[in-house]
Amino acid sequence: MRSYLSLLCACLLNAAAWAESTPASFFEPPVALADAGGTALITGKAQGCPTAADFNGDGKLDLILGAKDGMDTAMGGIWLIPNAGSKDKPAFRWTDAHRVALGDAAVSVACGCKSSGQVQPVACDWNDDGFLDIAYSDTYRRAYLLINDGKNKDKPTFTQQTFFDMEKTNHGMYAGGGDWDGDGVVDFLHMAFAGSEFKLFKGARQAKGGVKFVDGGLKACQALSIGGQKPRRCAWAWDYSGTAKQRGAIEYVGIVDLPSEQSEIGFYEVVSGQSKKLCVLVTPEGKTPLLTAVDLNADGKMDLLYSCGLWNNEKDKTKVWVMYGKK
Ligand SMILES: [Ca+2]
Ligand SMILES: [Ca+2]
Ligand SMILES: [Ca+2]
User: Fold this and answer.
1) How many helices (H) and strands (E) does the chain have?
2) Which terminus of the chain, N or C, has less C-beta within 10 A?
3) What angle do CA 20, 232, 279 make, to 5 degrees?
């Protein structure tokens, strides 16, 4: 009897160890971004895509949200929301949001289509001046760069230039990112035609600590040869487990849409050019989730930041969640 019990205990411990090693255990369960009092951040904008960077230079990561004015328009913009909490406990209030402007005029993004167009931003420092710049896809034809003119830290204004032009129009010209080549620096991933192509604009660290992606248009990017199971949008690579690099694997997260009109955020791994979904991390409560990976609470562990528009089927609202990294 005793040996049976000890065998059973050993089996249970092994099962626990296996469960603990699955990618779902790399992250805390999702929590909604909120203000310091715990009220969830709910924007009045549709289909937002969140990312984070310290745009005002106070050492705390701030929220950057690409979004549309509403579901009945194909026009979008980018909003900056300063971190009103602390470095390790970020807090955000939509009343603090500042719409990114080119001089006196708000950045207005034509994203092709009312229902499927989005604005997907990624932070960088293109000109290495220590001020936040933004690369974004209009998810239709072009990716742009917003270069911070450095005149106002809290409410920055920008000049705009084309990052690259896909030359073809398609409602699935999505952006992804993270570290695809294992050098520890984030890259820009162009996921043309809803993820049928993964094209890499490699990131390089700038002298002041920011990142610049490879310049020179579509000619300068590197097509990644990856077969197998792949997500349609928001593929973000990182060594989430801390073992990917030594195993010669690429770990990444990404989104696929389900027949139910819901979507799932999955954890994927590429080995020898073949991508495989290892598990579903979360099935978000809203529709059309968008995601980036960023260390929001600055603890050295990569976090997943995702949003949903049309949550509870309400239009023109975005709610943002974070899954804090545990690895
Ligand atoms: Ca900040
Ligand atoms: Ca800059
Ligand atoms: Ca973190």
Assistant:
1) 3, 27
2) N
3) 15
